[in-house]
Specification:
Layout lengths: L2 H9 L3 H23 L2 H17 L10 H29 L16 H18 L4 H12 L4 H8 L3 H23 L1
Pfam families: Sigma70_r2 (PF04542), Sigma70_r4_2 (PF08281)
Protein name: Sigma-70 family RNA polymerase sigma factor
GO biological process, one term: DNA-templated transcription initiation
């Protein structure tokens, strides 16, 4: 498969095309971020977010631009957003420093009401998960209910680890949208 063909097929939501693009550009985007953040885990997280965002917005990609450049631009913006969030949280922590001098000790054990609410929320969450496509349901089930590692999920569904990570991130985004639309 050629890159331009894969992009066009990805615009029609072709999963094989997404996998091809992910495999073709993963090392490039990951290497770019690794040089910037100098931390393998952070570089991997940003790369996963990059592909997730790119695949969610693949229909906005214009063919007159280089696809690799488009991915790097998305990746740079995600990194900048993360830096801004870190700066904001650091400044908030500094301003609340004096308030943290005194702590009340509370009983953290759940009350019967808390247990009931948790069970009801879990039932709602399971109903929302069932609204996802089966392959997204499967990765959420394997990761969060069976508590499998990415590597174990990869061998279970016979897909590369990078695909598992992106699929899981997309599943979480779709689930969040389902939950958000129910609230409104």
């Amino acid at each position: 498969m050629e890159i331009k063909q894969a992009i066009e097929r990805a615009k029609t939501n072709d999963q094989k095309a997404f996998n091809f693009l992910l495999d073709s550009f993963w090392d490039y985007v990951y290497g770019f971020q690794l040089k910037r953040v100098k931390n393998e885990n952070d570089a991997e997280d940003i790369t996963i977010q990059t592909f997730s965002k790119a695949f969610d917005r693949i229909d906005t990609y214009k063919s007159e631009y280089n696809f690799k450049t488009w991915l790097i631009t998305i990746s740079k913006n995600i990194h900048i957003d993360l830096i801004r969030k870190e700066k904001n949280s650091i400044s908030q922590n500094i301003s609340h420093h004096d308030e943290d001098k005194y702590h009340n000790i509370l009983d953290d054990s759940p009350s019967p009401e808390d247990i009931l609410i948790t069970e009801q929320n879990l039932a709602k969450l399971l109903r929302d998960i069932k609204k996802l496509k089966p392959h997204y349901q499967e990765v959420i089930n394997l990761r969060y209910f069976q508590e499998l590692s990415y590597k174990e999920i990869s061998s279970e569904i016979n897909e590369p680890i990078n695909n598992v990570k992106v699929k899981l991130l997309r599943a979480k985004k779709l689930l969040a949208e389902i939950i958000k639309t129910k609230r409104n």
